[in-house]
Amino acid sequence: MHAYMIELISLMAIFSFAIISPGADLAMVMRQALVHGRRQAIITSFGIGAALMFHVSYTILGLGLIISQSVYLFNIVKWLGVAYLVYIGIKALRAGRTEITVSPEAQGEAAKAQSALKAFTLGFAANALNPKAVFFFLSIFSTIVHAHTPMAIKFGYGTVMASCLILWFVGVSTFMTTPRMRAAFSRASKWIDRTSGVVFIALGIKLATEKAA
After folding, report:
1. Is 107 part of a structural domain of the chain?
2. Is residue 18 included in any domain, yes or no?
């Protein structure tokens, strides 16, 4: 199998757990769907996807700059990435069941007119201003993607990831805003966290035992 395809599959295997884990983005999309309707929630989903590309872009460009200056510095960043993956893995294993709820105030609001620009901006800002995303993308790109993978290929990875994220939240906007679906997802959240925790820790250990570049 082509090396780039292996990298993409590895990235998506990790990223898929990050996508479905309960968090601020999920809460934002569900609130948008309940208060402003499915269309606005879908637009917000595209805003979140655009923010992901923002994170991916500065991560790729920043790592490229580090690599151009020193392979030693890159390996330091890589080891920090390994440490962060193990950290979030342990945190996920210790997490309990997550209740996916929307506040009574939000549920009681009448559907208000909201511009497409505002809906998009809400999604973009919610993700772009999340400091955890900085460490997450730095970790997975520095540990999974080879230092010499062409820049265009790396941006291609980012595009695939952003597209999958948008599709997930479009699905949330469409199917997961009913009380029954929220309850089902809440019940599954504990096992989602445990599985993702094992995956993150396993990846960190695997990378820690590999020889430095």
Report:
1. no
2. no
Helix ranges restricted to H, the chain = 3-20, 24-36, 38-69, 71-94, 104-108, 116-128, 131-144, 151-175, 179-209
Asked if the structure places residue 7 within a domain, the reply is no
d(CA 161, CA 147): 19
Structurally, the chain folds into a number of domains equal to 1
Tokens of 56: 């991916």
* Distance (Å, whole) CA 123 – CA 117: 10
**What are the pLDDT digits (tens) for 28-69?**
888 788 778 889 999 999 999 999 999 888 888 876 666 556
Q: Which two tokens stand for residue 115?
A: 């511009």
Q: What is the pLDDT of residues 68-125, one digit of tens each?
A: 566 676 667 667 767 777 876 787 777 665 555 555 555 444 445 688 999 999 889 8
Question: 35-47: buried (b, 16+ CB within 10 Å) or exposed (e) per residue?
Answer: bbbeebbbbbbbb
Hey, how many other C-beta atoms are within 10 angstroms of the C-beta on 5? 9
Write out the residue range of the structural domain in which residue 127 sits: 24-99+114-207
What tokens appear for 213 in the block? 């570049």
69 occurs within a structural domain: yes
- The Cα 176–Cα 27 span in angstroms is 11
What 3-state class would DSSP assign to 147?
Answer: coil
